[in-house]
Amino acid sequence: MSDDIDAIPTHVTRLVHAVQLTPGVRRLTFAGGLDRYRTAGPDSFVYVLLPPPGHRELTIGVDFTWSACFEMPEAERPVGAYYTVRHHRPANGELDIDVVLHDDAGPASGWAATAEAGDPVALWGPRTSYHPPDGTDDLLLVADDTGLPAACAIAESLAPHQRVHLVAEVADRREHQPITTKAACSVTWLHRGGAPPGRSTALADAVTALPMPPASTYVWGGGESRIMTGIRKHVRRTWGLPRDQVSLTPYWRHADSPIPTTEDDE
Q1: Is the dihedral of CA 30, 224, 188, 137 positive or negative?
Q2: With contact defined as beta carbons under 8 Å apart, do 17 and 117 qualify?
Q3: Would you place residue 106 in the very low, low, confident or very high pLDDT band (cuts 50, 70, 90)?
Q4: Within this chain, do residues 251 and 143 fall inside the same structural domain, yes or no?
Q5: Per-residue pLDDT tens digits for 219-229
């Protein structure tokens, strides 16, 4: 890891509240230890660091770095995953993270399903992948369940003169979420119809069926790696959008999905 990565701050905090937002999403609210937290952008994401298996307390502190982590005994290394900060309320010293619950839960989503007030957590970050060029007025947001918190936060950050279209794929109608924004906003909800996450073509099909957008459109997306790669190829090659107007991030990937390469962005 580079020195710049090691300079990213870590915030030691605790869970204070949890609520089942939808059948598949649990909202976790953290408070305490967030005085140094500064929002990086509307899609600010952090790495949620948890106690390693068999531990109830964190094995790292605010001096955490990935360089030091890799030198720790494996049994003492924290576990975790990246998540978007859905809301940050600096006046209250609180932030919310919406966690998608999985049947094949990893260490973070498995913990989130049963987490209770008082559980210790460290948040490494934030970072951002949202960099629209100055003067951007038209945006296309593309997300599956994992990218939806960031897409909603981006839409809600926009000004009245901006226009945004959100294309979101979720399991069914019960996973729809309200979006309150000053911008002119349209939302296309797509349902997987029983298909496993990341195995439906609904998201890619919906984007490729859209008419050519204004040449200045900024496209942001978050979702399964193979799906995001396909959409990136379409908006770069078919629509001809330049690289600085496209940010489609592989939030997660199936084991059989190829690892994205720089060639995918050409």
Answers
A1: positive
A2: yes
A3: confident
A4: yes
A5: 999 999 999 99
The count of C-alpha atoms lying within 13 angstroms of the C-alpha of 219, restricted to the half-sphere facing its C-beta, is: 25
Residue ranges in 176-264 assigned as alpha helix (H): 202-208, 225-233
Residue 203 CB partners (closer than 8 Å, separation 6+): 142, 144, 167, 169, 190, 223, 227, 231
Give me the residue label for tokens 């349902």: 191
Are 45 and 77 contained in the same domain? yes
Tell me the per-residue pLDDT of 124-182, one tens digit each, with 9 for 90 and over: 999 999 999 999 999 999 999 999 999 999 999 999 999 999 999 999 999 999 999 99
Structural domain that includes position 16: 3-127
How many other CB atoms sit within 10 Å of the CB of residue 84? 26
Confirm whether pTM is higher than 0.90: yes
Q: What pLDDT, in 10s, does the model give residues 239-266?
A: 999 999 999 999 987 767 666 655 555 5
- C-alpha torsion sign, points 257, 112, 174, 157: negative
In a domain, 52, yes or no: yes
The CATH code of the domain that includes 155 is: 3.40.50.80
Give the amino acid at 67: S
CATH number where 98 lies: 2.40.30.10
DSSP symbols for 50-77: EPPTT-SS-S--TT--HHHHTTS-GGGS
**Biggest CA pair distance of the chain:** 53
* Residue 41, in any domain of the structure: yes
State how far the alpha carbon of 208 is from the alpha carbons of 55, 117, 148, 242, in Å.
47, 44, 19, 17
At which residue do the structure tokens 């970050």 appear?
125
